[in-house]
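PROTEIN DESIGN WORKSHEET
SECTION A - STRUCTURE
LENGTH: 322
TOKENS:
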């Protein structure tokens, strides 16, 4: 077990909190990958040799330091690769690291639902379940040709490998500053999907305005929904093209929300994070010849000038929706 997946139990999606906690991990290893808004992967192969301790022992030290220095508890999953560590995190609890050894990987994966595998979305999971492949154990036992007919050649091969414990992923150091986030908490646990969508609309418009103010575009959008029981669901979707267009961000946010299929969920907060930021001048825009789209973009330009002159509250949330 050389990879840790650490989720810090932050009180909110505070962009200023995660970098300091990543710095704590970097005291043990320089190979740290941020998974905003509150999670990170750490490759401890070198640290195990340097400190003469196992990854699980180092995880205990990391937890104690996070509490002592930042007042933040964390849950930690450990495994031989990033995929296993991320899946182990789902079963982790505060104060106890969920560790999966290399010899235990196949058995650990066999009982997991297919949707638990990183990279398997709701549509792929639904297709597999329709054919009785509802656990990774059944997926691993299925012929490769069957999986490729169901989900495609490349995706089928990757799915077959992962279900059999083959993890070709690696921890890629990155910078948390390559993202922007905003959160919309509710004053009480909210069950109304209409209010959830209005919160997403407001958050998407804020992200779009901030991106345009920085002359940036984003390549993907991540939605985090926090529930009354302190659990959370996070989903990421790559955008059709890099954008800072609020309407495009809103459509993607709605799509992520609807894919969760929440029914009577008691939601405490929703958060959006724009990731993979790049300079706007490097991004290409696909012409749509849609007069409504062009009109909304012109309205955005006017609204941005109003915000720059009169402040961020100069434009009411929801007035730019397309």
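SECTION B - SEQUENCE
RESIDUE ASSIGNMENT:
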């Amino acid at each position: 077990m050389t990879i840790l997946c650490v989720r810090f139990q932050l009180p909110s999606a505070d962009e200023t909190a995660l970098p300091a906690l990543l710095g704590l991990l970097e005291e043990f290893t320089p190979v740290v990958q941020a998974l905003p808004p509150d999670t990170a992967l750490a490759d401890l192969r070198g640290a195990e040799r340097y400190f003469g301790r196992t990854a699980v022992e180092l995880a205990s030290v990391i937890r104690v330091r996070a509490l002592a220095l930042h007042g933040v508890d964390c849950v930690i999953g450990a495994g031989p690769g990033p995929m296993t560590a991320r899946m182990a995190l789902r079963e982790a609890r505060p104060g106890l690291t969920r560790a999966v050894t290399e010899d235990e990987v196949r058995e650990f994966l066999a009982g997991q639902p297919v949707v638990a595998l990183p990279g398997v979305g709701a549509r792929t999971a639904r297709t597999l379940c329709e054919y009785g492949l509802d656990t990774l154990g059944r997926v691993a036992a299925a012929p490769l040709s069957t999986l490729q007919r169901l989900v495609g050649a490349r995706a089928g091969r990757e799915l077959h490998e992962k279900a059999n414990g083959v993890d070709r992923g690696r921890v890629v150091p990155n910078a948390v500053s390559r993202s922007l986030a905003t959160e919309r908490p509710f004053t009480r646990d909210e069950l109304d999907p209409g209010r959830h969508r209005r919160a997403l609309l407001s958050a998407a418009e804020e992200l779009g305005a901030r991106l345009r103010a920085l002359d940036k575009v984003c390549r993907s959008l991540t939605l985090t929904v926090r529930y009354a029981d302190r659990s959370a669901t996070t989903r990421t979707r790559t955008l059709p093209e890099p954008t800072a267009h609020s309407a495009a961000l809103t459509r993607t946010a709605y799509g992520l929300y609807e894919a969760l299929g929440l029914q009577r969920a008691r939601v405490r907060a929703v958060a959006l994070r724009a990731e993979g930021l790049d300079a706007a001048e490097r991004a290409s825009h696909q012409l749509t010849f849609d007069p409504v789209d062009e009109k909304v973009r012109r309205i955005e330009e006017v609204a941005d000038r109003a915000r720059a002159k009169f402040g961020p509250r100069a434009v009411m949330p929801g007035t730019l929706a397309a």
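SECTION C - NOTES
The longest strand covers residues 179-190.
Strands lie at 3-8, 32-35, 39-43, 74-79, 98-99, 179-190, 216-227, 232-243, 267-275, 278-279.
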